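Please go through the sequence line and C-alpha coordinate line underneath and see whether the fold suits the sequence. See right below:
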Amino acid sequence: MDAVAQLLAMKTAGTQQLAQIAVMRRAHQMDMQLIEMIDGVTSQAPAPAGQGRIVDKRA
Protein backbone atom coordinates (compact mmCIF):
# COMPACT_ATOMS: atom_id res chain seq x y z
CA MET A 1 0.00 0.00 0.00
CA ASP A 2 2.93 2.33 0.66
CA ALA A 3 4.15 2.05 -2.94
CA VAL A 4 0.66 2.84 -4.23
CA ALA A 5 0.48 5.93 -2.03
CA GLN A 6 3.90 7.05 -3.24
CA LEU A 7 2.92 6.56 -6.87
CA LEU A 8 -0.31 8.48 -6.34
CA ALA A 9 1.57 11.33 -4.64
CA MET A 10 4.06 11.50 -7.52
CA LYS A 11 1.25 11.58 -10.08
CA THR A 12 -0.54 14.33 -8.13
CA ALA A 13 2.65 16.39 -7.88
CA GLY A 14 3.25 16.00 -11.63
CA THR A 15 -0.30 17.13 -12.38
CA GLN A 16 0.09 20.16 -10.12
CA GLN A 17 3.38 21.05 -11.81
CA LEU A 18 1.78 20.81 -15.26
CA ALA A 19 -1.06 23.06 -14.11
CA GLN A 20 1.41 25.62 -12.74
CA ILE A 21 3.34 25.59 -16.01
CA ALA A 22 0.14 26.08 -18.00
CA VAL A 23 -0.89 29.05 -15.84
CA MET A 24 2.58 30.58 -16.12
CA ARG A 25 2.60 30.09 -19.90
CA ARG A 26 -0.81 31.74 -20.25
CA ALA A 27 0.28 34.69 -18.09
CA HIS A 28 3.36 35.09 -20.29
CA GLN A 29 1.21 35.02 -23.44
CA MET A 30 -1.07 37.70 -21.99
CA ASP A 31 1.94 39.86 -21.09
CA MET A 32 3.32 39.50 -24.62
CA GLN A 33 -0.06 40.43 -26.13
CA LEU A 34 -0.15 43.56 -23.98
CA ILE A 35 3.40 44.49 -25.01
CA GLU A 36 2.59 43.95 -28.69
CA MET A 37 -0.56 46.05 -28.36
CA ILE A 38 1.32 48.92 -26.72
CA ASP A 39 4.15 48.65 -29.25
CA GLY A 40 1.68 48.78 -32.14
CA VAL A 41 -0.02 51.89 -30.78
CA THR A 42 3.23 53.72 -30.06
CA SER A 43 4.77 52.93 -33.44
CA GLN A 44 1.68 54.28 -35.24
CA ALA A 45 1.41 57.46 -33.18
CA PRO A 46 2.80 60.60 -34.80
CA ALA A 47 5.87 62.17 -33.24
CA PRO A 48 5.25 65.27 -31.13
CA ALA A 49 5.93 68.65 -32.74
CA GLY A 50 9.65 69.31 -32.90
CA GLN A 51 10.56 65.67 -32.35
CA GLY A 52 10.55 64.11 -35.77
CA ARG A 53 12.26 60.95 -36.91
CA ILE A 54 14.91 62.78 -38.92
CA VAL A 55 17.99 64.11 -37.13
CA ASP A 56 18.83 67.69 -38.07
CA LYS A 57 22.63 67.63 -38.19
CA ARG A 58 22.78 71.40 -38.69
CA ALA A 59 21.45 72.03 -35.18
